[in-house]
């Protein structure tokens, strides 16, 4: 009984990473937009970094979901 509760608690804590990823994506795009509005000529040069930051942040969210699912079903 206690092991089941510990699995659910651990999975819930692991899911907090998905919320952090959502906040991170908002931060990335918000800062890119603020920088692009201040210096529009440099926006094209920063677009590749924007996409890379988005991909890494989303990957961390997906990894936290994977950890939660592993905790629940293994």
From TrEMBL:
<dbReference type="InterPro" id="IPR038662">
    <property type="entry name" value="ATP_synth_F0_csu_sf"/>
</dbReference>
<dbReference type="GO" id="GO:0005886">
    <property type="term" value="C:plasma membrane"/>
</dbReference>
<comment type="similarity">
    <text>Belongs to the ATPase C chain family.</text>
</comment>
<keyword id="KW-0375">Hydrogen ion transport</keyword>
<keyword id="KW-0472">Membrane</keyword>
<keyword id="KW-0812">Transmembrane</keyword>
<keyword id="KW-0813">Transport</keyword>
<dbReference type="GO" id="GO:0045259">
    <property type="term" value="C:proton-transporting ATP synthase complex"/>
</dbReference>
<protein>
    <recommendedName>
        <fullName>ATP synthase subunit c</fullName>
    </recommendedName>
</protein>
<keyword id="KW-0997">Cell inner membrane</keyword>
<comment type="function">
    <text>F(1)F(0) ATP synthase produces ATP from ADP in the presence of a proton or sodium gradient. F-type ATPases consist of two structural domains, F(1) containing the extramembraneous catalytic core and F(0) containing the membrane proton channel, linked together by a central stalk and a peripheral stalk. During catalysis, ATP synthesis in the catalytic domain of F(1) is coupled via a rotary mechanism of the central stalk subunits to proton translocation.</text>
</comment>
<dbReference type="InterPro" id="IPR002379">
    <property type="entry name" value="ATPase_proteolipid_c-like_dom"/>
</dbReference>
<keyword id="KW-1133">Transmembrane helix</keyword>
<feature type="site" description="Reversibly protonated during proton transport">
    <location>
        <position position="58"/>
    </location>
</feature>
<dbReference type="InterPro" id="IPR000454">
    <property type="entry name" value="ATP_synth_F0_csu"/>
</dbReference>
<dbReference type="GO" id="GO:0008289">
    <property type="term" value="F:lipid binding"/>
</dbReference>
<feature type="domain" description="V-ATPase proteolipid subunit C-like">
    <location>
        <begin position="9"/>
        <end position="71"/>
    </location>
</feature>
<keyword id="KW-0406">Ion transport</keyword>
<dbReference type="GO" id="GO:0046933">
    <property type="term" value="F:proton-transporting ATP synthase activity, rotational mechanism"/>
</dbReference>
<keyword id="KW-0446">Lipid-binding</keyword>
<keyword id="KW-0138">CF(0)</keyword>
<keyword id="KW-0066">ATP synthesis</keyword>
<dbReference type="InterPro" id="IPR035921">
    <property type="entry name" value="F/V-ATP_Csub_sf"/>
</dbReference>
<dbReference type="GO" id="GO:0033177">
    <property type="term" value="C:proton-transporting two-sector ATPase complex, proton-transporting domain"/>
</dbReference>
<feature type="transmembrane region" description="Helical">
    <location>
        <begin position="6"/>
        <end position="29"/>
    </location>
</feature>
<dbReference type="Pfam" id="PF00137">
    <property type="entry name" value="ATP-synt_C"/>
</dbReference>
<feature type="transmembrane region" description="Helical">
    <location>
        <begin position="50"/>
        <end position="73"/>
    </location>
</feature>
<comment type="function">
    <text>Key component of the F(0) channel; it plays a direct role in translocation across the membrane. A homomeric c-ring of between 10-14 subunits forms the central stalk rotor element with the F(1) delta and epsilon subunits.</text>
</comment>
<keyword id="KW-1003">Cell membrane</keyword>
<comment type="subunit">
    <text>F-type ATPases have 2 components, F(1) - the catalytic core - and F(0) - the membrane proton channel. F(1) has five subunits: alpha(3), beta(3), gamma(1), delta(1), epsilon(1). F(0) has three main subunits: a(1), b(2) and c(10-14). The alpha and beta chains form an alternating ring which encloses part of the gamma chain. F(1) is attached to F(0) by a central stalk formed by the gamma and epsilon chains, while a peripheral stalk is formed by the delta and b chains.</text>
</comment>
